[in-house]
Amino acid sequence: MDIRQLTPLISVSPQITVEDVGVLASKGFKTIFCNRPDNESDDQVNADAIRHAAEKNGLAFHYLPITPGQISDTDISEFAELMAGNRGPILAYCRTGNRSSTLWALAESAHITPEALLEATKAVGYDLSGQHERMQQRFAESKSEATTSRSAKRHTVVIVGGGAGGQSVASSLLKRQPDLDIAIVEPASSHYYQPGWTLVGGGVFKREQTQRAMKDVMPSKIAWYQTAVSEFNPKDQRIVLENGDELAYQSLVVATGLKLDWDAIPGLRETLGQNGVTSNYRFDLAPYTWKLVQSLRKGKAIFTQPPMPIKCAGAPQKAMYLSCDEWKRSGHLAQMDVEFCTSGAALFGVADYVPALMEYVDDYGIQLQFKHTLKSVDGPNKKAIFSAIDEQGNETEITKSFDMLHVCPPQCAPDVIAKSPLADAAGWVDVSPETLQHKHFGNIYAVGDVSNAPNAKTAAAVRSQAPVVAENVLASLRGAPAMALYEGYGSCPLTVERGKIVLAEFGYGGKLQPTFPGWLVNGKRPSRLAWFLKEKLLPWLYWEGMLKGKEWLVAPKHLTHRPEPQSAPDACNFEDKK
User: What b/e readout covers 359-389, taking b as 16+ CB neighbours within 10 angstroms?
Assistant: First the structure.
């Protein structure tokens, strides 16, 4: 087969056969567009035969026949709608691939310059110079419409979210193109170093160390809209702000983070910060965790973990280990009954790190309760109700009394994302796990916790993703394919005691990705050097490096050729891997 990739989302080819459809399915394609009218030649395989083969192989099929030299504006609009409304990767074919590539270029000319499109199509063997004038006209009309629309302001790149992901991408973009027109939409007035909240709850940091004014860390060269987004309109390349104003963009980066769903557990929100109920997942509550640990001398302490996905899958354990370490140092651990109630079936999702963690579980006398999910909390009576599933799959309800309850809340995509055209069935932004480019809208990317890429949701992952997104955004603006590659890197410094950390570093499928050689930091064993990195180096690296576009040790890898689309790599499932 002669597959020619225009972007990671869409490829074109000459006429295909019924046998080719199975090959396309095996290569990860999800949709086929036929742009060739039936019966153009005697040896042609007509659309119905390809449609039947596509359905048999689980692929979507759409027939948009184009007569050579007669591409109408309606045809272009229909092709754009098909791209927006179907899962990628997509293969579009005609007799030679020329009509399909022309449709793609004309559809994309609403937001990509003609020069960039001509370069992209020429690179795969199609000379569309005869379409230059039409592309130029469409590009100019789109820009004019965006300028004259009510309340619409236009920026080359709009970033939704000013947390770790949004600011890191902005700084990485400006590092590469200092004059780039960038806007960040972020309503908050404070910026937080959230990985530090574990150490606040462990008595190592003061919470003020993890907070800075947003205006002091926002890149100076960007336009900051201090408001929230109420709607995404990717077909029009617009977002709507809470006050009704619109922002038009050429490229959009979604970096909203996720939603901590405190209300998913009845009784939890109203008892947080009192009755012994706390959580290091909130800036205002982490000091209460430390207060409880210091004051508790005997009794029952329960630490919970909900179903995946959650940000920093090791954080619930970190709170537990640091608490146990303090009780051990103060001589009260023997009087404490400590339980770890997790919805998962294993202590940690990457098996290589479990032996070291189990040594601490045994040393602290922690009871592990797998497949236990917190369902409700009665704070005044200090009762926690769990759903427990046994080995036979039977579900029972268990009520546990507590003196201290540390809760990791269920987590989901923000409502504005989950209800938008950007979301997958679970509500997350639907991206390619390698390029972080949206599977349907080629000028949209996601960074951080809001994407459905199957990596661990950690700040370290954001640090690796930011330069990948920056390079791929700039490629999209040029009309070139996204070639920077994210391999799923995430890091979870598991604070097993004050002064020692098990430094878990891994990528897609749980593959270990250590930053340092084993003789310096053995990530499978507790390390004092890893603690130094967590306590001293990483906060500085966050504020002075990551947020300012410094890409030490995270320069992105690149695809060396235009690959045929592949299936997504296996997710690192923190619930089931043992």
Answer: ebbeebebeebbbbbbbebebeebebbbebe
